[in-house]
Design a protein that fits this description.
201 residues; Ribosomal Protein S4 Delta 41, Chain A, domain 1; alpha+beta
Length: 201
């Protein structure tokens, strides 16, 4: 399954944000990479700004271009504000839900857990990171995987209350998607309206 495997710190420096999680390099070099990265006089065109926003969203959620475009097309066919629906579709991915529930420390780690069949949905193993979780479904850790160190460390002290659209049961190591989140509740710093404008050109 295709995924981004390039240098992550370089991408984080490009956007000036820890796209893939905490990054020590970003704190030391808080300017874009490359020969002209520290040139403050560079200006970005309107198109460049919209493109950068789309790239940021793709890297943040670990989605490649074709898959992202398909999600956007789907968002345009659903009633509601296209940008907000797009963000909800991204948030509803199984790998993202696993990350939001604190089962994994990063989305990349969550994707790996899903791929390696450590995650169950409604009692059945699902190994497709892009699987769309629906409200009411139960997402949990497979019984024989509950002792995995990476999962135990990620869950230790994790604050589940910061995502009100999710419910977590510590005893069963299972979570439930109560409803799709409102855009105001999604913490990602993404200007989805710019993405809508980009694809509308």
């Amino acid at each position: 399954m295709a995924k981004y495997t390039g240098p992550k710190s370089r991408i984080s420096r490009k956007f000036g944000e820890p796209i893939f999680g905490p990054d020590k390099v970003l704190s030391k070099r808080n300017f874009p990479p490359g020969q002209h990265g520290n040139d403050r006089r560079r200006k970005t065109s309107e198109y460049g700004t919209m493109l950068a926003e789309k790239q940021k969203a793709k890297y943040t959620y670990g989605v490649l271009e074709r898959q992202f475009r398909n999600m956007f097309d789907k968002a345009t066919r659903v009633s509601g504000v296209t940008g907000e629906v797009l963000m909800q579709l991204l948030e509803g991915r199984l790998d993202n839900i696993v990350y939001r529930l604190g089962i994994a420390p990063t989305r990349a780690a969550a994707r790996q857990l899903v791929n390696h069949k450590h995650i169950i949905v409604d009692g059945n193993v699902v190994n497709i990171p892009s699987y769309s979780v629906k409200p009411g479904q139960i997402i949990g850790v497979r019984e024989k995987s509950k002792s995995l160190e990476v999962i135990a460390e990620a869950l230790a002290g994790f604050n589940h209350s910061k995502y009100p659209w999710l419910e977590w049961d510590e005893n069963t190591k299972c979570g439930k998607l109560l409803h799709m989140p409102d855009r105001a509740d999604i913490p990602e710093n993404i200007k989805e309206q710019l993405i809508v404008e980009l694809y509308s050109k």
